[in-house]
Write a structure and sequence with these properties.
Strand content: under 5%
Distance between the termini: 22 Å
Helix content: over 70%
Radius of gyration: 21 Å
Structural class: mainly alpha
Number of strands: 0
Oligomer: single chain
Length: 391
């Protein structure tokens, strides 16, 4: 579990920072094209879209649902009031998430996981078939339905309202950043989040997306396929082989349809590419999951995967540290470097890899001295309303 969480955390870091530093968020298309690494930047971003985009957050959400089920069984076996404790745990997570969303990192996922977690609670008693069936429907159709409504302009659809993506909006964000105007930056992103994420209803599509993955994770937990992974290695190998094959092929097709300039243009081209992508994200993510499980349990990749467990045990702390790093690199507040519009995907990828390696070392050092990461300790203390021992 910790290894899987650590692997997912790296992918989330990469796919948070690379698109956010690019167009049309914190850099204009023209700024990126003027960089000396422009050709390689665009090619590398396509590679990350093919291999990583949405797969990492899929694994993260899956692990949330899996952890939910395992914790439920553990607490119920001890006679604890699981529902009461878990509601408190989700409330703390939601507060942390909304603080992150409003004041640090506008693409925060924690608040969404907390909201989906509250919906998961009453669904935990579903029978095994319904748990999987509803999970698959929501996982495959949550954002796909949102995209369809946006594409075909149904009345009252989740189309999003205009604003936030034009060059003048991007340049305004850069101006606020370079002037070190923290209040202005926070206000600018709050307006954007309110219009593009909340008022548009996009949050509902993402909520279904996350909840579907939670339910699939809970289903796998109920089956015991992670806890008793050794017993199911032949099945995991089949999932690995088919998941990687189908996922890589069809995700590659989606990227080609979306990005290849040599293809003829046709109506709704981007939408069809996005549908292929959203349908095969869970397939490739399952392939990655199975690869890690087989590699770890069989010992073939144990040596290479083990360090991910250190960051995985401190996932909350490391996730918020990553948000701080992205802010320091892209914005000019305080010691910030204000590099938005001045670096491309190649440099961003190097920063992500370097920072993540430092997180691995920091996590190993910290866990060699303490039982919990600093924010994990706070989360646990507020959940159980007691101060757990740190050593």
């Amino acid at each position: 579990m910790d290894v899987l969480r650590g692997v997912a955390l790296f992918g989330v870091f990469l796919m948070n920072m690379a698109p956010f530093a690019g167009a049309p968020i914190m850099a204009t298309e023209q700024q990126l094209l003027s960089l000396p690494t422009a050709g390689l930047d665009f090619a590398l971003l396509d590679v990350w879209r093919w291999l990583v985009m949405d797969k990492a957050n899929t694994l993260f959400a899956f692990l949330f649902g899996l952890g939910f089920f395992l914790q439920m069984k553990r607490l119920e076996a001890r006679g604890a009031d699981f529902e009461h404790l878990y509601k408190r745990r989700l409330t703390v997570l939601m507060i942390i998430g909304f603080l992150n969303l409003l004041f640090l990192w506008t693409w925060d996922i924690l608040h969404l996981y907390a909201l989906a977690g509250f919906i998961l609670l009453p669904l935990r008693r579903l029978n095994t078939r319904d748990l999987l069936g509803i999970g698959l429907i929501l996982a495959l159709l949550g954002r796909t339905g949102q995209k369809a409504l946006a594409e075909f302009g149904a009345p009252g659809s989740w189309t999003g309202l205009p604003g936030g993506y034009a060059d003048q909006d991007i340049l305004l964000r850069q101006q606020l950043s370079e002037s070190g105007d923290y209040v202005g930056i926070v206000g600018s992103f709050f307006d954007w989040v309110f219009v593009d994420y909340l008022a548009s209803g996009m949050i509902l599509g993402w909520l279904c997306y996350a909840l579907g993955r939670f339910l699939i994770g809970a289903w796998v937990g109920r089956k015991g396929w992670i806890v008793r992974a050794q017993e199911f290695l032949p099945g995991w190998r089949r999932v690995r082989n088919w998941g990687l094959l189908l996922g890589l092929v069809f995700e590659g097709i989606a990227v080609i349809i979306s990005e290849a300039s040599w293809l003829p243009d046709w109506e709704h081209r981007e939408f069809y590419a996005e549908c292929i992508h959203l349908f095969f994200v869970p397939v490739l993510a399952a392939g990655y999951l199975a690869t890690v499980v087989v590699g770890f349990e069989s010992g073939s990749l144990h040596r290479w995967l083990a360090p991910f467990a250190w960051t995985g045990r401190m996932a909350l702390t490391n996730y918020l540290l990553q948000a701080m790093v992205m802010g320091l690199v892209l914005f000019g507040v305080g010691p910030g470097l204000a590099l938005a519009g001045k670096i491309g995907t190649v440099q961003v990828s190097g920063i992500v890899i370097g920072v993540y390696l430092l997180q691995v070392l920091f996590s190993r050092w910290w866990l060699g001295r303490y039982r919990y990461g600093p924010l994990e300790w706070v989360w646990r203390a507020l959940t159980y309303q007691s101060r757990p021992a740190m050593t």
